[in-house]
Amino acid sequence: MNLILHLLLDAAVIFGLAYIMPQVQVKSFGTALLIAVLLGLLNFFIGWIIRFPLNLITFFLLTGIIRIVVTAILLKLIDSFMDSFTIDGFWPALVIALAVAVAGTLIDRSAPTKERIESGYEALANVSTVSLT
Predict the structure, then answer these.
(1) Three-state secondary structure of the chain
(2) Calpha distance 81→85 (Å, rounded)
(3) Where are the domains of the chain?
(4) Residues facing 25 on adjacent strands
(5) Does the keyword Transmembrane apply (predicted)?
(6) pTM for the whole thing?
(7) What pLDDT digit, counting tens, does each position of 76-100 carry?
(8) Which contacts of 9-16 are long-range, i.e. CB under 8 A and separated by 24 or more positions?
(9) Chain center to CA of 55
(10) N or C, which end of the chain is more exposed by having fewer CB within 10 Å?
């Protein structure tokens, strides 16, 4: 369920930023969903190959920044082999990568984890919101 939510949110972010930014063109929401799927697959299969040496060079101190830059590079790679998706320049790709990372972080932070549920934290949070209303 979390994967589907991530893909839909990534597609929405890409489609929304394409509407706002004149340097980015996306044909439809279906194309944005395909871009999100391709981005996830490329990040899984190729992204770690690019990220690992860069993280070694920076002694793993800039992991988040490197992840965003690699995502922007992968977006430009997707742009090169899709006709219905165009990014003019690297900076718009970096903005999209940053927005996708922020949206993913917000989803991951809001989703309850197994540890939080087992510790009773989620139950206590629900009780406190119910008692306040």
Answers:
(1) CHHHHHHHHHHHHHHHHHHHCCCEEECCHHHHHHHHHHHHHHHHHHHHHHHHHHHHHCCCCCHHHHHHHHHHHHHHHHHHHCCCEEECCHHHHHHHHHHHHHHHHHHHHHCCCHHHHHHCHHHHHHHHHHHHC
(2) 9
(3) 2-132
(4) 86
(5) yes
(6) 0.82
(7) 999 999 999 999 999 999 999 999 9
(8) 9/103, 9/104, 9/107, 10/36, 10/39, 10/40, 10/100, 10/103, 10/104, 11/35, 11/36, 13/96, 13/99, 13/100, 13/103, 14/96, 14/100
(9) 19
(10) C
Which amino acid appears at position 16 of this protein?
Answer: G
